[in-house]
Design a protein that fits this description.
The structure holds four protein chains of four kinds. Chain B is about 70% helix and about 5% strand. Chain B is mainly alpha-helical. Chain B is globular. Chain D is an all-alpha fold. Chain D has a single domain, classed as Helix Hairpins. Helix content of chain D is about 75%, strand content about 0%. Chain D is built from three helices and no strands. Chain D is elongated and about 55 Å long. Chain D starts with a helix and ends in a 13-residue tail after the last helix. In chain D, about 60% of the residues are buried. Chains A and C meet through helix 4 of A and helix 28 of C.
Amino acid sequence: MTTFPIITLLIIAVITLGITAVALFLKNIIHCSILLAVSWVGIAAFYLWAGAEFVAFAQVLVYVGAVSMVVLFAVLLTQRKQLDLEKLTGTVGFRELGKLAAAMVATVLVIAIATTPLTGSFDAINEPVITVRDIGIQLRDNHIGALLIVGVLLTVALLGAVVVASAEPKTEE
Amino acid sequence: MMTFSTILAQAVTGTSSQDIPFSPPLLSLIVFAPIIGGLILLIFPKLDTVLARILGLFFSLSTLVMGTGAAIIVLELFGTAPIIKTAKFMSPYKLVENGEIVSSLGINYHLGIDGISILLVLLTGIIAPMCLLASWKIKKANLFNALMLLTQGAALGVFLTLNFFHWFIFWELSLFPVFFLIKIWGGPNATRAAYQFVIYTLGGSAFMLLSFAAIYAATGQLGFNILPSYVGIEGSLNEKLAAFGSTVPMLVFWGILVGLAVKVPLFPLHTWLPITYAEAPVGVSMFLTAILSKMGVYAVHRILWPIFPEQLKTASPYLIWLALAGIVLGAYAAMRQTDLKRMIAYSSINHLNYCLLAVFAAFGATHATQAAADAAFSGTLLQMFNHGLSAAALFFCIGVLEDRSGVRGLNDFGGVRKVAPVFAALCGISMFSSLGLPGLNGFVSEFLIFRGVFELMPWAAVIACLGLLGTAIFLLNFWQKVFHGPIKNNTSKITDLSPREILVLGPVVILMFVIGIWPQFIINLFKAKLDLGH
Amino acid sequence: MPSSIDILWFIPALPLLAAFIGAISTQRMRSVASGSALSAMAVSFGLSCIALKDALAAPGVHQVNNFSWVSVGTFNLQLGFLLDPLTAFMLVMVTFVGFLIFLFSTGYMKGDENYAKFFCYLSLFAAAMLGILVSNSLLLTFICWEVVGLASYLLIGFWFFKPEAAAAAKKAFITTRIGDLGFLIGLIWLHSISGTQLFYNNGEGFLETINLVEATAPALFAISAIGILLFCGAIGKSGQFPLHVWLPDAMEGPTPVSALIHAATMVAAGVFLMARVFPLLEFGSALTVVAYIGAITALLGAVIAVAQNDIKRILAFSTVSQLGYMMLAIGVGVWEAAIFHLLTHAFFKALLFLGAGSVIHAAHHEQDIRALGGLAPRMKITFATFSIGMMALAGVPFLFSGFWSKEAILHGAHTWSVSHIPFYIGLVAVVLTAFYMTRLMANVFFGKPRSHAVEHAHENNWVMTLPLTLLAICAILLGFLGTPAFPWLQAKLLGKDLSGALEFGKIFEGPGLMITSIVLVALGLGIGWAIYGFRKRERFGDADPLEKRFPGLWSALEHRLYFDELYAATILKTNSLLASFSDWLDRWIVDGAVQLVSKLGTLLGFINRDIDEQCLNAGFNETAEEIRGIGNTYSKAQSGDVHGYLRVMAWGFVAIVILVSIALNI
Amino acid sequence: MTILHLCLIFSALLFSLGLAAALARSSGILVLLGIELMLNAANINFIAFWKFSPNPENGTGAMFAIFSIAVAAAEAAVGLALIIAIYRHQSSIRLQDANTLKG
């Protein structure tokens, strides 16, 4: 019974990576962002696979629900002038250099992971072990400080975002 | 004998012996009708302006209609019959709608109405259509109406929700439409005013949120109807909070107080108010002063009073000075304003602080007789209603002046009474209502407050008298400079009220007389609550 | 048939209805407004007469009709109506004088563009005034009291386009409101210690239970303080020192208003209130305060009246002085005498004001006595009636009502056990009153006309002379209600039975007192005539004989002893400073603190920069030069290209991993 | 090669894809999305290590992932706001144009 979860994992990983790769090399930004939203769903699927239901829900809510919407809005707001964003103006080769660097990082990481011996039994796939209720209790008992700080952080970030995004150029008035 | 209202009451609450298969969720409808209306207007931005105005008015008026229905039901069901109290300090909620949303987190969808809520719901029902009518000719009317309706729905949500979670959502929700209303339609400094308003209030709310997080951590409850039962029994809220640290109960109390005090506003957290009221368009100023400022006072009654009686008692002797400062400073600062809107804004600070004065006096007094406390509390409640009427009417009058002449300085006018007698008469009645002339509504509430406060804390009442005098001085000064004397240039542009404007002011003025002469009519709404003690 | 107590509320309600009709009447419906006002007053007068009959049938009985107004929890406020002889006499007086003045107004205000509004305000005033009279509750009294103030405000400012009228209206309202705040506090205090503010409630009203209160020091203190606070309200409304300043300015209003409100009725409300709560005042030590304030006011008003030139202002200060008399009477304990004087004063002062109004109307709104003159032959009825009023006011013996009522007051003051000072002050005021009224008569009616308008003056029509005649008759007859020989009025007010027989002997009881006062009146009249009667004023610009003799004193009196200036320099200044301070505090300190917090971040930035500049630059300037050279080289790497930075990081990461793995030999 | 290895490699590849996006695209929005992907890759690591940890009932890894998601959301909001602000100033979201940091 160990092959089934592995196969599931492989399927999730391949689909997610594939979609992401395609997304990142599409020209149209809107298509890009929609595909990325799909890849976030893939990541959520991974969380579900791993038994972290609540994290998966959070992933869907925050990324698929919220961030992707914000991204779409940002795209729409900034697309009034149809600029060819990929036009090469004095930045010869930056794209190739970037891809090269990313490939190097990937290589180094994969080699590092693959050569690391991990001891222990990883074949027994545990059933989901953490429920929403557990997380609630954990948040309330052990992580209340962090929760409050994150709340404040979010508030401040939101305010900051509003202020930054709506600051008008002085010349307007 | 089955009257219409008993049938209605039985229908809604399902208490009838006969089977009436009709029970609309009245409270939810009250809250969500304006929100739905607002969303409709937002979704169809290309709607014909006239249609949009009428739709807006319709949804706005729905509150008044359904609120009156709820009031009739409440009076019919509980007007004379005693209500069984389930716990000490528990307020008797009269109409309740309940549903679980996330039961494991204690977040219930829980609406309830009692005397205080119903008063404010009715006030909202009266003022909100008035605000729309006052801004009838505004540009981009569709968006304006939509945002106003959203604000109205949020305010109603605050008045009717019994669970902190939803309450807080509504509380914050009321901010954002107002932000845009001020920013888009406001005066020259509107952007600054809007930011100041939002950031000030959000800042206050952050403290409140932290406090409620602490309460939730201690009790696992967020219901306004459940939390009071933690007071004064074994394993009380204070003890649970004190488990986090000995200062936590007081900190939690102050956190909530700061959040409310900004909204009311309590001195010295009031500095956002004059500029915001002055810069906002007239309909929004009316709504801000009449309804949104009441949210703070309401929350004092709904949260601080039932949940933190001990802390309130400890803090009141100090807080009362702040309320007195607000009263005196508000009145005297108003005397120096040359911008009429700022003047009325300061007078609002003055009037709202009477409400807080009474609450703090009732809690801070070392010896309180029941009669004095009853007078103080009923005065507070009535004052909320009365201030809503008179301040909104005065803002509207200044809006009329500004609309006609484009200016609103104290010294820009003269002899308006000559060119616009009807306007002068209605504005004069509103003004005298605001300065507490007997026979009009303002006097009743101020008398009750002074009567209560005097017995509880005589010196505070005497100091507050300065505020009464100051109010008379600046309002009469306003009246003399604007309406009396020879006619000035700007005045010649002023025409008398149109029928629409009379429709706005007329009902309010009539209400002022009715409440002034027969206050029991309003008092009956919240009487049952006080009859049972606190 | 319902008893009068049940229909008592109609008496104020009818004028209120008339006020409402007046409010919605347009200028075209002017006759509707005045007609409804007049008929309401007439019906109210009829009802008042019935009420008087009922009340007199049972003097000493207080019929009440109470009802709950506000009731919440354990807190309860009741209002009520009261009928006793005091109320009934006042009702008849107010409705009768009111009716006559309304009638006079239909002529006087004929051409005014706000004719309907005028009657609306007058009716509103009458309603509120009658409300005060029938009230059985201090709260209802206060409510009507304030509405009376509002009506007075509206009527003083009736010609609102005149800046002086607008200012006078505001001054009147705010000055009386200062007193009213005292009233309010007194009322609240009373309610909080006694639990009721009903005068009479079948043995439970506070005037009935006051005698049961134990005379402990705290109770005495509290009740005295309440009495004085209530008196504050009366000070404001009745123009007593030190709040008398608004009353002369109130003469900016139309003359019928001055007659009705600022002579006959409203200003008497304070006296009425004091008489009503007399048992309360008696209990504490408030009466002494009342007596002295009254005495001071009586003298002050009379003195200032001597040097005024505006006919209405002379009468206004005379009103102040007479109200002082009434307060004095209450203070020395003879409140029935105060009410007697109130009633007689209402008639003769209304007569004088209407007479003045008649003069002013005939002389095309000339009010300065220096510009009038020689009117006696031109306006015979006005002259005759005005003379009667003048003699009543001056206290000319036996025939005129003022003599008897003033005599009653002086008699009471003489027998006051505490001090004789108020009595002597009263005597001085008697002389002065006779003196300034003689001056007024001599200047207005004798000599020759001193302006063009006056030369062509002629008598007014019946609408205006009829009220004068009726009032004149009353000004004579009313005195006989309360002569020492047959003190019917006083007995009824006190609820005593009269023995029934006339006792002429009593007139001459204590003849010394009466003879003294007759002599003093004669002295005042004589001096007045000696100075102003024999050598009459020739031209408008002539200086007053007294002015030539005592220029300094005269100027002070002419400026009303500089009270206005004094208040402007002290109270108004303080108030204005307080306002400026509040504004400043709010603008700079409170808001400033908020701004300060927001500036704090910026400030830290500045401090940081300063430290950089001062310490680093000064100390390491040379080193910095060198470093800057190196920095210039390296700063070329700072391309501003975000991708470049990120890429370098990636390369760096790869390099570190490779280096580490080589170093660790993995 | 265990399942954990697979998870980690999945995460590493996702990270690299994100990096590639951040390095090779000139649109500010896509750069930001690349960074988001890198954060997600880190979250995958947390979850993977938590799942195969000796006592997963503690839930620490999941908690960390939750907080990380919250912070990432804040970061996305601020980042996009910055991009809009840049767009206001320069009428472009090309990061090459935003080179005012140049030394």
